[in-house]
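User: My collaborator sent over this chain with a note saying "see what the structure looks like." That's all I know about it. Can you take a look?
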Amino acid sequence: MSDPASSQRPLIVASVMMTMFMVAMEATIVSTAMPQIVAQLGGLRLYSWVFSSYLLTQTVMTVIFGKLADLYGRKPIMQAGIGIFLVGSFFAGFAWSMSSMVVFRLLQGVGAGAIMPVALTIIGDLYPARERGKVQGYLASVWAFSAVVGPMIGAFIVTKLSWAWIFWINIPIGLAAAGGFALFLREKAMQQRRSIDLAGAGLFTVAIAALMGALTDITTTDRTTLTVLVAVFCLCLALFVVQERRAPDPIISFDLWKRRAIAAANGAAVVLGMVLMGLTTFLPMYVQGVLHRTPVVAGLALTMVMVGWPCGATFTARAFPRFGLRPILLAGGLLLPIGAGVLVFLTRDSSPVLAGIGSLLIGLGMGLVSVSSLILIQEIVEHSERGSATASNLFARNLGSTLGAAAFGGVLNYGLAHSANAGNVSSDQLKELLQSQTAPVDMALQMTLQHALHVTFCAMFVIALACIVLTLLVPAAVTRRIGEAPRDDVAEMPPAASME
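Assistant: Without extra context I'll predict from the sequence alone. Here is the result:
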């Protein structure tokens, strides 16, 4: 699968970009239409689970489908993922209640869990390291484009059409992408069939589902339910470790995670996920509630992270053959806390331009670290492990997003509770402050929110500092070896699947 005709590669990349656009836009377009959906379907208590259910199954299935792509080839798993995603999208448009919507979003998440790791693995198979960074820069631009057009498309659909079309719009895109893979991606039949670790997959699914359920609703779940979820996580995790140690073909190879470079890169991915979640959640809140600017200004400040990300990815693609991966990793690791540090120094009199600069620097750092980490991971493993290695990096980032939501949410609540005006401020008053841009500013409310968000940005800065440490842990010898030569000596054994 690693040597297709050069004329076919752009067509396969176009199919990859369509699938990634479909998944990326889902992250923004649904949030735009959710007020109309919940108004029609009811079930406000399940509002957050429309998003959490999607993230839950996407995170859990990423690792499993990455392994299946190594066992059965990239093409069948990608097509299965597209099919599952489209089935979920089709039925989500016909949802008759919020409960059914959550179920169909779970199904969409399963499909996304197959699409994302396999898409990046296909790019890793098609292009050598020196060319791959450029293509991954294109993929990063897909996310930036989706972040901009998603809300606009969502607003148009709910205004002019039925909200169901925010899901049905995926169907022609997905069918076109599936057709592209069917026509242009060729794989030979597998030479060897290996067993699937079903017990390990089941235990892993339950363990991560329990962990994410606990983290997602940590502030609203009662103590008994939270205790049960944590207990289930610990029990299933222990059983999973035992199962993986004895399984002939484990879902997660501990030997893979024991490699220092992979462990450090995945640790950095966790930090990226946490910082990104903190930024996207709390920067708009600061611009609207503390700086008292419109949602449009808040959105522009946040959008800078999606400008910085593809710029950082593109720079990595062009610069790493010349400078090597390690300097780029370190530069990205430094930019992350620098950007978070800019947010720490925001005051009530600051310009939203300063908030946008912090967002831009964080985006640049993420682009540098994410692309160079992915190149690093894909290059130091065998072809038969590339799907699992790629999936491990995406899983780490998704898990970081969930950890970030729980951690920073807790820090925000701590800051609100320990503000000088905490006793005089209610949650309804804070909500009113964020929603109203024309009413006179209540100084007590503004100072309370500013204090809480300042504490949250300080916590984000401390976590971002860990990215420097983790990038320093990547062995210099490994990054030099990748930069010096194409990856021809890594996969001497016959690949699991190869192009016809």
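A starting point for your reply to your collaborator: The CA atoms of residues 294 and 386 lie 45 Å apart.
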